[in-house]
Amino acid sequence: MEALGMGGYGAYVWSCYGLTLIVLVLSNWQARARHKRVYRDIEVRIKALEDRQ
Amino acid sequence: MWKFFHHLTSPPHFYRLAATIIPWLAFPGLVLIAYGSYAGLFVAPEDYQQGDAYRIIYVHVPAAYVSIMAYVLMAVGGGCGLIWRLKLAHAVGAAAAPLGAAFTFLALATGSIWGRPMWGTWWEWGDPRLMSELIMLFLYFGYMALRAAIDETAKADKASAVLALVGVVNVVIVHYSVVWWNSLHQGPTLLKKGGPGMDADMLYPLLAMILGFTLVFGALLARRIRTEVLYRERRTRWVRELILAPGGGR
User: Fold this and answer.
1) Is residue A12 part of a domain?
2) Disulfide check for B224: which of B5, B48, B95, B229 has CB 3.0–4.6 Å away?
């Protein structure tokens, strides 16, 4: 528990590490979600064109 | 050499190559961040002036470093796109901007949280390092807003590349702000003459975090460039073949 308290600076130190984790996770999620969305849009358009032909 | 470079920067080749290299960047990067965080939080000795509050350095400095690196990449991408008209170069710039903004925000936020117990304030408007980093965040926002405001990709590429190149001046200011002006920030520690001014037990976790952040940024960037390439090449034959291939090419 003493180690987690960070000599009285625990709130400052842990909030920075928490924020870092959030930024890394969100950046990864956003990159994956955008790729999926772009891929799906192109897939729908190309398959619609194929069906028409 | 030129032929190899041309092959490397061809969109279909890069799209496939990036899928292969993403895990090779992400996993070592995450391992380094895990080691750096553990060693920085629990193994590195306490600072004689700042106590345990200094441990914020292990996320603040790597975030600030990546924020600058992303901007340089964005500007180099813009420059290469303007000069050599490389399709991939503009895609690099467009992909680097949101990541650069995220890491700049992280550097500013962790710096602000660190400043509260050490400087007695969340924010200091007169500090040149803080202000130049904030301007960099606005440059990222401006770059993204400019791209979003122009429908035609080629025009958006050119306009945003010019903005990125002009903003390079600010990167120099961010780096030298602590040398040129009085700042609450300390002077260069890692890149100073005579070697880093840190104890090895404090230094190694920091270097691991900087390398880890760089590798994870590289993985995220490669993923975003793939998406950019796919979108820009959506009307080409290779994308059609990729999508229609059994199993697709996500």
Assistant:
1) no
2) B95
